[in-house]
Write a structure and sequence with these properties.
alpha+beta; Sodium/glucose cotransporter; Ribonucleotide Reductase Protein R1, domain 1; Beta-Lactamase; 5 domains; five-stranded mixed beta sheet; 38 helices; elongated; phosphorelay sensor kinase activity; kinase
Amino acid sequence: MPLTAVVLTCITYILALFGLAWATDNGRIPSRWLHHPFVYVLSLGVYASAWTFYGAVGLANTYGIGFLAAYLGASLAFVLAPVIFVPILRLCRSYQFSSLADLLAFRFRSRVAGVLTTLFMLMASIPLLSVQIQAVAESVNILNQRLQGPVVAQVFCVTLTLFTMLFGARHPSIRDKHEGLVFTLAIKSLLKLAAMIIMACYVLWGIFDGPNDLMEWLKLATLTQPQPINDDAWRTLLLAFFASVIVMPHMFHISFTENLNNRAFRQAAWVMPCFLILMCLVIPLIVWAGIRLTINGNPEYMILYLGLQQQQLLLTILSFIGGLAASSGIMIVSVLALAAMILNHLLLPTFQPNPRTDFYRWLLWSKRSLIVTVVWLAYFYYSTVGQAYPLYLQGLIAFVAFLQFMPGLLATLFWPRGHRLGFIWGLLTGMGYWLVSMLLPLVTGHTDAPSLSLYTDNWHQSALYSLTLNTLIFSIISIYSKATAKEQQVAQICALNALPSPVGKQVMVTNCQDFILCLTPHLGYRTAEKEVLQAMDDLALEPDDHRPSSLRRLRDRLETNLSGLLGPTEAEEILDSSIPSQGDDTLYKATDIHIIESQLSQYKSRLTGLAGELDSLRRFHRNILLHLPIGVCALGEDQEIALWNNAMVTYTGLSAEQVLGSTLNDLPHPWQDLLSGFICSGQARQSTQEVSWAAHTRWFSLQRLDIQAETDEAPVGEHSVILLEDETETKLIDDRLAHSERLISVGRLAAGVAHEIGNPVTAIACLAQNLKYETDVPEILEIAGQQVQQTERISRIVQSLLTFSHTGQHSDPRHYEPLNINDCISEAIHLVRLDHRGRQLHFINHCHTQLLVAGDAQRLIQVFVNLFNNARDASADGAPIEVRGYTDEFSVIVQVEDHGRGIPADALEHLFEPFFTTKEPGKGTGLGLSLVYSIIEEHYGKIEVQSRTAAAPKDSDGADAQEQSTGTCITLTLPRYLSVEASSEG
């Protein structure tokens, strides 16, 4: 192939690679394309590296169908994505893990676990990265002999280093996704698949004359039998490739760190197996085409030799670009993932930047420096060891190494008893055996030793022995070792279908600013401020939220965010050393039950079977508590509010979001005094406690219940439940009844006193009259006359009281007598004026003098007394109370109107109900208007109320608008009394 064509192809590919990533990051590509689930799914095609593009051909040429293990094992892993990938994604999302080292360090609560995972992952990845460099260098050299492998390898490493630094290390935290990188990987996957499918089509119809010709050739051709692969080796290959899909750094990074779509694994479960099957179907066609054309070159690059021998320039270029895409994709992502692992678990624990430096910038450039280091470390391995061995052999060694991480990963998801010491010693043993039996012979060149030979069928024994030793030691140590309480808690968090646990420590800071000051020595003020504000924004917390549970949640969120920035181990160490806390952090906080409740609400769709039934039962009981007609407030052992039902919200006006997680002492007045005082009193019950706030007065009764919370092992503390019941209506009814009883007693006493007063008044009147006969002195006679007049006035008053005291005795309507309604009104005015408050008002009677009705005079007098008393209570001193009366053909209509404050519209419909009053407690019984309504109904009449609470003139008769602005007008309509003569005349 001409040198110019090779150089132009490489330059075009590099420019397209950079241009596509730049266009994506700068918004030149529509976001609906970038966020489409299939874009992410196709990016998972980074699994198809140079090993599967080139090396699988060599493996097929040597082992026959053994090459299928690379595709079938990976396909099986993707099919099981909902079982394995989704739980890992949940953990990575919840705690912002960026690598397998982060996950295992968190699960086993061990920095050593993270360090060993990082070191061994780097050792396993270097041979695989060397394969990518070797594939590019040798493929370019095959295309043109003038381009030497080492030079091409160096150019390739420099190019990928720049690309990874520019588009893969643009942000220090994993919160910021690399959309340009993911989109570029998706395009590369399409290029790889297109290259393989086009080559397959060319083989079928270009080299062979269609499928029938291929079948005939296969029957007649004498093919060299490939080396047989036994069942153990086959199963080992399947297991190795199955594990590699999950634990390889580049696959973990794309699958979990860059994942933007939770549902993407549903598509990946069928798209990726189809993708891999299409690719693997091409491999035999390429091998058979090479055999038919008797190509003697390295069988791993048969796809390139086919294009060259057939002198198909475009086909050769497309095949080369496919291989270049396969090599560069895995190289970029692996280097990026390994650099992040080294930064979090090797560099940060040993070196901390000056707090005055820009921490984000330091992290960014540290990661970029590590990218350069990892790339050139892989190049060094390639130049010293890798180029001497075939691609598939080095790939197998790497995949067996990745297999050693599966026991720890499976224990994370399915075995909470797994112990950190078991994981550490198991990993050391398994990787040590792999290092001695597989990697060292490759590095030292001693591959001819029978026990270490990689060219025999015994290679799988090394893989199985290392994995078996790893698993056995891990299991034995875990069974016989007791994990710490913290490790047990985290193990339960990581277990499948578990929920994140709220932190149990009591944070010893009082506000968000304290968090910033505590983190400043480690992160610098600007970084600490940004991280705290970001965590507050994530939780939707206000700066003045000082609730203990909110501060714990903020610390929890800070640890999660810093985990994405620094790794979980370093984040935990910084927070433990900088933010003071107390209490046992190994137990669930009972006061954080509301947090668990919210998590269960989001998790309910994934609960099935018994767990789903129990959750339904929990929801049922919770709804009962929330909708009880009495207030329920549950307190944890440290007096933090864990439950605040709807009745409490109604009583206090405080929403559950405002109070959950706070203490009773944090509640506003008067609820702090009421509830906290009740708890401190130690009493089990308090009745009718008066509470006043914002012009409201209500009465509550309180009950307390202490509950001993227990776990399977031991009691964990005492919790309290407060029941708050509103007894305001009962209290007001009791007060009204008591007031009514007092009024009845006063009435009886007044009647008795009035009767007794009559005797001395009569004697005084007699004495005053006798003076007329015993003296002729004009002055004395005048005084005697005045005395007689006053005694007569007293007699009238006493007679009115006696007459009024007999009201309430229901009269038979058949014995109603005709009466003048004006007389009843005048008598009622006279009675009301006896009260000093009545004397301060101005009664205006506009009634006609001849308004006759049939009825009980005393009961009608009581009607008007009640109406005048209400008007008096609603009016200011000196205000007029007008009474108007007129008749129509069959009715007598009386209107009582005041100019007081009016009656609210929402009270009008309840105005005549017993015990309903708009007056303050103790100033009315709520029985007056109810009695009025019943008396009017007894007289076959009706009553209507009109009230004005806004400034609006009642009529246009020239009355003062200010006086007419408010007030109440009550209209009584009674049947008119018609004499027999008038009736007959009518």
